[in-house]
Every structure is written in structure tokens, then in C-alpha cells.
Amino acid sequence: MVSRLQLDRWVMMGMIGFVVGVIGFLLHQLIEGIADLKWETTQDILRDGKPALAWLFTSGYSVGFVLFSTAIIIFWRPSAGGSGIPEVTGFLNGTHMRHIFSLRTMVAKFLSCVTAIGCGMPVGPEGPMIHLGALVGAGVSQARSETLNFKLPFFERFRNSEDRRNFVSAGAAAGVASAFGAPVGGLLFSMEEVSSFWTMSLSWQIFFCCMVSTFTTDLFNSAFKGFKYTGNFGQFKTERYILFDIERGVDVNILMFIPTVVIGVIGGGLASLFTITNLKIARVRRRFLARIEAKWKQNVFRMFEPAFLMVIVSTLSIFLPAAFPCTQYTCLVGDATQVSKNCINDSTNAYSIDYSLTKDYTCAKGQVWHTNTTWYTNSTYNELASLLFGTTESAVKHLFAPDMHTMFGYASLAVGLVFYFFFVCWACGTSVASGILVPMLLIGSLYGRMVGLVMVSLFGLHVDKDSYWRWMDPGAFALIGAASFMGGVTRLTMTVTVIMMELTNDVQVLLPVMVSVMVAKWVGDFFTHPIFHAHLEMKCIPFLESEPRVTIMGKNVKLELYSVKDVMSSPVDTVREIESVQHLAELLLHTSHGGFPVVRKTSSGHRVFVGIITRMELVVLLMKEDLFSEGRQRHVVTEQEQEVNWVEYEELLIDKFANPQQKTETLDRYLNQPAYENKYLDLSYYVNESALSIPQRFSLQRTYVIFRTLGMRHLTVVDNHNEVVGMVTRKDLMGFNMVERLSHCLQVTGATR
Amino acid sequence: MVSRLQLDRWVMMGMIGFVVGVIGFLLHQLIEGIADLKWETTQDILRDGKPALAWLFTSGYSVGFVLFSTAIIIFWRPSAGGSGIPEVTGFLNGTHMRHIFSLRTMVAKFLSCVTAIGCGMPVGPEGPMIHLGALVGAGVSQARSETLNFKLPFFERFRNSEDRRNFVSAGAAAGVASAFGAPVGGLLFSMEEVSSFWTMSLSWQIFFCCMVSTFTTDLFNSAFKGFKYTGNFGQFKTERYILFDIERGVDVNILMFIPTVVIGVIGGGLASLFTITNLKIARVRRRFLARIEAKWKQNVFRMFEPAFLMVIVSTLSIFLPAAFPCTQYTCLVGDATQVSKNCINDSTNAYSIDYSLTKDYTCAKGQVWHTNTTWYTNSTYNELASLLFGTTESAVKHLFAPDMHTMFGYASLAVGLVFYFFFVCWACGTSVASGILVPMLLIGSLYGRMVGLVMVSLFGLHVDKDSYWRWMDPGAFALIGAASFMGGVTRLTMTVTVIMMELTNDVQVLLPVMVSVMVAKWVGDFFTHPIFHAHLEMKCIPFLESEPRVTIMGKNVKLELYSVKDVMSSPVDTVREIESVQHLAELLLHTSHGGFPVVRKTSSGHRVFVGIITRMELVVLLMKEDLFSEGRQRHVVTEQEQEVNWVEYEELLIDKFANPQQKTETLDRYLNQPAYENKYLDLSYYVNESALSIPQRFSLQRTYVIFRTLGMRHLTVVDNHNEVVGMVTRKDLMGFNMVERLSHCLQVTGATR
What we know:
The structure is a homodimer. By secondary structure, chain A is α+β, with helices and mostly antiparallel strands. In chain A, β7 and β8 (339-344) form a beta hairpin. In chain A, α10 (257-291) runs antiparallel to α15 (437-459). At the A-B interface, α7, α8, β5, β6 and α17 of A face α7, α8, β5, β6 and α17 of B.
């Protein structure tokens, strides 16, 4: 029952998943290695009481790496900057951009991302992982590379735009799956945000791809730390592969939904502020760059901007914590050497902290004493340093921790919130390859924990497992806050919920998470666009939303009231079924249309529409002079021609035309040499007769839906007699274009509609 | 930015979610009440040493309830039988069946389901909950009921087929969400299995609906048990709302994937066997019923079949456990009265059992003794009785329990597997309202636990938390087995994975669950259809798959090689833009088409296609005699007519025509009275000009995809001159129809294609 083609497709999905998984592992290990070295050294220097030296080291280390990170992007492959999510989304919507799927982009993205995040930029690796995954999907499935100039003889059947698109969707999903360890979340992310076309059979294959990807990353991560084998190969310890593991969450209580809604509202508001600030900074930067004339000066600015940012970040990280006192705690110790994880705060004697998560900064390590059979230690730690020292991931891990109610006070949370909110906004627009998914979780968990702390301040500590008020755990609210911020910024619902579940291993808070995401989405929708769509607009990537929305003078236009005639492009360059070579050459040389309607003259004199022929097909046909006939006559297919090698033909179709120079010369020759004046080409065998056409009074709303749902590139508009009167392409249906043409309509017809 | 319509839609989604949630709560409480009463009484009688009396009680109790359950279905509302999933799926695909959305169906389904499951039929309430949810979606959103003969003046704008379809999708999703406590799983189930059309904005709304539904059910379940208030209103205890709560699962190990693949293969195989057996039993039953001539005899058979089944089930439940010895265990007791949950098996001293899950049957309750400060008890339980006494849900809960390696031996698991496999197969085809989702989980967890037990037998017990071999926990394999069986029967992947995660609160075994589901799906695809699709076929519900598959003589037909001409219906009844009333009346009386292409005669003599008018629209127009004109002439719209009350018009369109008798009489009058001979109706204002048409050489594959993707009802086929030559409807694209027509094509053209 399973065809060879289907089997190949599954194998390909497995391969993509595996490669993405390995890349995810390498990325994770490298970032962790670079970050650990930095922060451990800094901590050691601080412990020796030399803050100035610590500052010098941290700044130097960060600036060095970040300069490398930006240099790669600016001088080697500019299009590898940013997260890559808008580019991949745009590609899957039907717009191809140069270089987004080349090997060099991949290398640049990987190196830039690793160094930038490792050295402490407040950004995350998830966005770049999505792009890297999509790159793998595009590269592996096509089994060739233009950069390396090779083409393998496998999987040629996948060299068509539909399969390529599907593999790119799968790769992007696998990227999220690997980065977050969230296979279902990755699948849903690809579905809800990245992909524009989706079928159920595709989702099964992508499911498989995500599974393999997560499995591969988890497997290697379970056995290696900093590329050193740590034993127990194949044993998936939760603390190693579940990013923010929560051992046992809190039971949900109905009262919990009150602060949850508050968090949702704050989340929606802050998320909108975040999006607006982020775009504002990007615009200011762009305007500033536009004013600089010399290209090299622009590059210098773009290169030193992140370095400058890193100097500020390093300075603040080193000196801000000094303003905070050391927080004391008492620990129960297993034996004299090993500190147990259950520590009790000295003053309140009511909550525990996870010793391994805190940072000493300049605070003293306590002494150890014992009573009868048990050992104790009392130590101190610095709250703000625990948030600022390390990657964003480790900070989130601190904040999600349950049963540690007063581990962080208001002051440290507030400072952390301002710090990260501003620097993430800034950093994610600079020239490095970076994403914002984990930083978003961090910002959200900071205000979430603050709300939790307010509850604790108002109603007291409730740590008894069976207490009715046990739900007042700031850790749980940090998790809810993180979900709300991510939901508010991205406006994804299912995806965020499932990712939170997979990230934390905590199914219990599912309902509050859902509520906060939903509320944040509503509030966010009220203020601004989702951030990825805003980025699409900013990067001028033409994107067709799943539902059209045209606003003229602040009012939504009802597209049902207009017809396709009002926005179509007209007149149209058509070709006849048997067309002169010179006319075809002229069309190809002097227009840039991707396809042409083919018409046939009927006995009643109408030139009726019979189908579409693409530019690529015309070029291929025109290169074969033996197909030309003398005068306008039907081409009769001979026995010999019927056995033409179709693979060869298909390859010609798919590859970019190898030598554009030669092509132009040939077409010029046709156009100018009199020998071709009476040459004709019979297109009837090559016309795509399954091209849809619609009448000109067709409702605009429905045109949009059909165009978008079927993922079309050209839609021919005909009149009652089936004569071509216009053409609709992606450009005609873009928002700004419709606004312009419909405004014109409104002026002509008056405001009566 | 949010329109009133959008807001109303969200409110409606919330209302549907709430109502479904309340129904879910009632269903759950009633079932639990009926089941608990039965099994507790039986246990008490057995403890008194009166097995014959126990048998009498159990059989009588079950037969009584089951007779009530079937009587409702057979004598009151036959279409409420079964799970209802095929009917809802069919409706959302575009086929409406009588009675599936009426209030009486709802009451019948609810009562039948509650009594059948409560009294011990080995079926589950999830399928009926999906139907009940869909019913609520259809009923609440339309704010009217034909049964009760009322129509509220609210939400009239939702009385159109698209909104109705969306609310039904939402209701079905909310049903799953409520039954399983799995909001995301419900959403995905609706998307992957039930719905045929889906948009992203819809998924956000359904997400909200599922959330409200789960919340409502959980909230009430947390405070009530058997309708008695148990305190702590609003505190969501995991053991109360997470169906099969697993406190802390096992760490995954790479070696775990070997038995997981084995389980997947077994799952795929057994699931296919299950589907085939289930269909076989259904066919045998149907053939048997067809041989009985008298209707009342048929009803008697259908009524007593489940009763007969229940007698066998009761007999086996009571007497089979007697063949099993009592298993001993030792418990640590908190104080003399309260038994702790941590018990240790006497003989191996290596595993714990959850005392509250076991059933005594006739085994002795042990004595209590103490040493120094701790109290012990040693008791015995019956393994098979622990599986058979109670609902299927409680049996699953036993089997999923981790850290209880040898709680069940091979013998009890094997007997349980055969017992449930056969009786579930049988029971789910009888006349009661019943589903098979939880029974599937039960069957799967039985063989899953057996595989786990094999591991334990081979490699020994490993209960140390840090052991490398800790993953060999039969409880974990039971969970994996359950997922594999559900995946093998339904062929859903994402949904099953997410539902398992939400059902068990265990994210750790995510990867093995995914692998087993995928393997089971592959193996299952090799043997047979998914069960819900098989049920669709068996119930003769026309269903358009998302991708066409036509098999002629064992070979898949490539639909790209055929054109729409090969399957379209032709000739077609068309109407002209200005058509005689008599012709229209004749068409309406003597054909049953749902829509008619409207044509216009052009100056060149062609009758070109201008759009579609539906039967309903024609009927409404024909009832308004003042629209008729004398002779074939254009109707000119007057000032007065422009201000026609459109709401009234819309209502007429949506409602079934109130009085079909009167309609027929009027049409007859038109047709036969000479006064109407020269009356014409100008349809041009009412034609839907945004109806798609395709040329007759259009590829069949692409026709199918367009028809299915856009959810169309009629697709007009035209020739080069835009003249109507055929029509494609849902029926023309059904598999059997295409097979017939394409076989004909093949014979005509020879086997050259």
C-alpha cells in the first residue's frame, strides 16, 4: 500500500530530523561552553575581591566574541542576520528571497548565533534554529548545493516547489523541536506561525521529523556536557533534556485565575509595548544608517553597535548587584561535602531554595555545623547576580522554580525586568543572528513572579502541601507570566500552551497558562500586530494573510462589495497557442511576468483562454530550435519525439537557467535576425490547461480566499466570452495595493457603497 | 479593532464551552455513581461469601440498566445509537443527516450513554461526548429548537451554514476536552479527525471553547463526588481532574525504544485485528437482522443483544477471578486505622502497590501488627478482580501505575486482554450510545504491561531511583501500549500524543509514546483503514477524503491523467437569466438538484455561464408573485424595493421552508394554470456570480483538490466558449463513482494510459 515515493518522503523526513537534531546539539553545547567559561571565571575573580578586573574580563570576552559574531554577518553573509523567521515564513507563503537557503548562510548563522549568545547577548538561539532547520530541510531534500557546486543523483523527484516547501516546513518545525525539546510544540509552531499551506498527511510526516530531531538532540545532550562524555549514554535525565523541569507543580485553585487574568492583561500590554519599542528602535537605527553615506562607515556602525551594547550589559551585570545585600539561607547538608537541595531561609524558616541555582557574587559561603546526626550550612547569595550571571535560559530556570517563594525580592525582579526588557528590545534588532523566544519567557517570568510575590505579601506564605492556599507560589506565576508574554508578543495560542507544557513537564498549570495566553492575545490584538508579522512588513516581504483585511481611512473595507475587476492588473500580455518566435522573445526580454495566459482564436472570432504557460517553460522551449516551424502551423508529434527523456526535461524546468547570459543572447538573436521572422512555436502541448480562471465580476473577498487557499501564483480573469481581460498576482492582492486601487474606486463611484 | 460580530463569536464559543463542560460533569458523576453502587454492593456480597447472590445482583442490575439504555435508542431515537463520531465527521465534511442535531437525540444519547457505561458495558463515554458537544454547538449557536418549537431572537447572524459548521467543530472539540480533561487534545482531535475545514482564526476560538469546557468540568468535579459536596470548592486536585495521574514517571533510556517499537508493532497489528473484527461483527449482525422480517422481532433482537452480552460479562466478571489465587502484600501503616499507600510485596520485597486500587474479591483482609514505632498490615487481593471490577477508566488507572512492577501477573493480564478485546469489539456495535476511546486505552495498556513484565522477567527488578535500568517499569510500558493501540485504531498522531500527555500528566515518556504511535500507524496503514473511516463507509456516509484515492483492479489510478470531463454529470439543467416561471416550477418539482447554473445568451449566440442560483433561493423568489413580469423583460428595481428588509429575506433563506405542502401546491398551480404561461422572473439580481467554473479539460486531480479545499457543493464545467457542459457535485467525486466512470473511460480508450 505504501508507494516508493511515500517511503522516500518518510526517509527524507527522518534524515532532516536527524541533521537538525545534531545541529541543535552542537549549538547547545557550544553556547553552554562559551557562557560557562565566561561566568565561572567572572565569579572566581569576583570571589577574589577584584571587581575591576572582573569587569575588564567580562567586557573584553563579550566584545571579542560579539565582534566576531557581527563581522561574519556584515562581511560574509548579510542576509544571515536576525532570526530568519520572517524570511522562512515569507518563503513558505510564496516569496523567495536570495541567499536564504544557501550553505554559506547556514555557516554564518550558526557561528554568529553561537558566539553572540554564548558571550552573553540577551537573545536566544530558537529563532536561528528555525532558520537553520529550514535550511537543512531545503538543502538535504534537494541533495545539492550551489555554493559547493555539486548535485547528487538522489531524490531528484523532490526537486519541485511543493516538496521543497514541505521539507522546509518540516525543517523549521524540527528546529523548534530541537531547541525547546518540544516535538509537538515544534509541529504546532510550524503550523500556526511559519507555514501557509498545510495538509494532514504533511503533519504526520512533520510529526515524525520533529520526533527524530528531539530524540537526536536529547540523546547527545544526555551523554555530553561541554563535549565531554559524562557517562550513561542513552539515559535521558529530565534535568538534562527538559529545559525548565518542574518536579511537582502546584494544584490549581479557582482563585488562581484572578491573578492569572491580571498577568494576562499585563502580559498583553507589556508585549505590545515590547513590539512597539522594538520596531521603534529598528526604525531609528535605519534612519540613522540612511544618513551615513559611506558604506564602510555604515558597516562600522553596525559592527560596533552590538559591541557597545555588550559593554553596557557587562558593566551593569558586574556593578548593579553590588547595590543588593547578601541574602542568607540555611541548608540541611547530606554529609559534610555535599549540599542537599533543600535549604531553609534563616529569617522566615518557611521556604526552601535550590542552592545550585544561586550565584554568590561577593557574598560569603557559609560555615557548616552539625547537631547529632544532621549537618547544616548557612550561606548567602546575591539575588540580582543570580538573575544576571549566566544565559537567559538559566535565569528562566531560577524564576520557574517552585517552592521557593521569596528567593527573589521585588527590587531584584524589578531591576531584572527593566534590564532585560530594554536590552532584549535593543539586541534583537542588531546585526547578529539571534532570536527572542527564550528572552520573551524570561521577561514574562519576571513580572509573573512579581505578581506572585504580591500575593505572598498580601496573604502570607503557604507552603503546606495540603493547604487550600498552596497555589500562591511565585514560581507557578512566573510560568504563567512567561506564557502570557510569549502569547502577547507572538499571538500564538495552541503552540505557546503546548510548548510551555513540554518545556516545564508541568501539565497541572495548563488551564491558567491557557487563560493567560488568551487574555494576553486579546489585549495584544487591541494594540498592535504580532511581532513576526510586523517584522515581515518592516522587511518588505510580501505576505498574504489567511484572511484579507483592507483598511481605508480607519474603516475595514468589506471586500464582498467589490469585484476582482477593481484590483486586477490589466491589460495582459497574452500569447497565442501557435505563436511567433519573435513575439515570444520580445515578451521574455521586455517583461518580467512569471507566466502568460495562452489564448486560442475560435470560429466566432473570440480569443478564448485555454491555459497558462510559465516563463521558465517558454525559455526552455525557445532554446530548442528544432521545435520551430515555418509559418503558423500545428506541430505534429513524431514517434521519436514521444520517447523524449522526461527527466531531462524536468531538470531543465527546475534548475535555474544555467547561463542567463547565453539565454539573453539567443533571444536577442531571434528578435533581430530576419531568419526568425516567419518562425512559429506550437505551445499547445505545453500549456497548463488546469489553470483556474474567474469572471471579472467575481467577488474580491472570494478571489482572495481562493488565491490564498490554493496557494496560486497567477489567476486569470476572463469575461463572459472567456476572453482574457486581466490577471491577478500576489502583488495585486497585497494590502497596500488593494488600498490604493479601492480608494480609487471609491472616489470614482462616490461613497455610496 | 474588534468588531461586534467577532465579539459575539467569542461569547458564543464561551457559552458552548460552558454548556458542554456542565454536561461532561453530569455525565461523569452519574456514571461514577451507578458504577460505584454496583461494584461496592457486589464486593460486599462476595465478602459475605455468597457468589451466587453476587452474580444474581450484578446480572440483574446490569441487565436492568442496559435494557433501559437500548430501549431509549430503539423506540425513541434510533439515530442516537453508536458514538456519533461518523455522523459529526460526515456533517462537517458536508453531508447532513436527519436528526443528528435535535434535542431529542441529545437527551436519548445522554441517558443511554450514562446507563450503559454505568452498569458495566465495556465502552467509554468519550465518543458520545463528542456528539453531545457537537449538538450543543449546533443548538446553542442557532438559539432555536425544532423539537421544542421555539426560536430566540438572538444570534440570528449565526444562522448560516459556515458559522453553524464552525460551532459544531468547536462543540465536538469541547466534548473531547471535557471527557478527557484535555483541552489541547480536544482541539487537535477536532482538527485532525472530525473537521474537514479549518482556519487559524477558528482554531483560536476553539482553543478558548475547549479551555472553558475543561475548566467547567474540572471545577465541578473538584468539589463534588456522587453529587455530594466534598469541600474545597475550586481546588483542582490532580487526582480528581487528571484522569490517569502519574505522580512521577520514569527517566527515558535509549534501550527503552526497543520494547517500544515491539509494542508499536503489536499495537498496529492488534488494532487492525480490532478494526476488522469490529466490522465483521457489525456485518454479521446486519445480515442476521436483514433475515428477520418482522420489525418488532428485529427490535427485540437489538434490544436483547446487549442484555445478553451483559449477562455473559457479569458471569465472567464474577466467576473468572475465582480461578486466581490471592496475592499477598505487606503494607506500612500510618496508624492502626489508616493504611498508607506504600505497600511491599511479601515474597519479593521489591515493589510497592497502591492499596486503594486493588479489589479483595474473596481474599482476606490481613492483620495489623507493629514493631517499635511502625505498624504493618499484610493483606491479599485478587489480580483479575482488580481489573474487572469497576469501570474501564479505573482499570486503566491500575495499569498505568508506576513503581508497581509485579502487581499483575501474566495470567491476569492475558485473561483481561482477551476479555476486553472481544467484548469491546462486540459491545461498541450494539444499539447503545457508546464510544471506544477509553476501552482502546485499556486494551493497549494490557499488552503494554505484559511487554513490560517480560522485560522484568528477563532482566530483573530495578526499583532504585538512580539505576540505569530504572526505565523497565511495566506501568510506563502500559502507557506506551495504550498510546500505540489508540494510534493504531484511529491513526491520529499529534492528537493521541497530546491526549496521553494531558491524561497522565507525564511529559517524560513523550518520545517513546510518539515512537509507538508512529510505528502503530505505519503497521496499521499496511493492513486496514482507520476505524472511524471504516464506520463512515459502513454507514454509507459520503465522505470526501482530503486527498483522492481511486483504486481500479488493485492499482492506484493517477488522477492527473484524467480530466474533469471523465467524471462530470452531464447534461445539466440550466436556467436563463430571465426565465419563465413554468420552467422554474417544473425544475423544482421534477428534479432534486441543490443548485442550477444560470446562463445568458450573448450576441454571438452562445449561452454563457454567469453564475449559480440555489434551489432554496428559487423557491423563495417563486413564492413572491409580485416579482413576476409579463413576457421576457428586465426587472427594474424601484426605490421602494431597494429598501427591502434584508433580515427577513435572510431568514427565509436559512430556515427550512416552513410549509412544504403549500410550496408544492403553489408550484403546481404555476405549472398548470395558463395565467402563468407568459410570466417570467428576472434572476439577475439573485445569481451568485462568484461561483467558480472550470474548463472541461481541467485535470481531475486538481478538480478534486479545489472542490475539497474550498468546501464546494457545485462546480460548473464549461467549454471554451464558457457554455455549460457539465456539473460536478460531491457525489461525482466519491470514490465508487469515480471508479465506475474511469473504468468506463479505460475500456473505451483501451489500456494505453
